[in-house]
Predict the structure.
Amino acid sequence: MQSYWHAYLFVVVFAVLGVLLPVGALWGIGPLLRPNRPTAGKQTTYESGVDPFGDAHVRYNARYYLFALMFVVFDVETLFLYPWAVSLKKLGLFAFAEMVLFLILLVIGWVYAWRKKVLEWN
């Protein structure tokens, strides 16, 4: 390990410089280069030219989150299915059985959500 101390020193020096130089440049030189002309229009909450109205905190229905979660679960499932389908011949029967078990568990979760009426908007 002692013969590699110079390599570790280079890694540490370059890591520190890789963080400090960009941060220092943005912090030190940035204010000199960018304009600073605050106006009342720029100081508003929405800088789009439309005056803000109403409350910024809007309550969303929890069903939106449940649908988003279901989408993510089934989207990740398709990500697992693509590599499996491509290499199914190489993997053999064991991989096929594992994927069938995976799909059965997903279907069980979907049926559970359906029976709990999570997917209904009434």
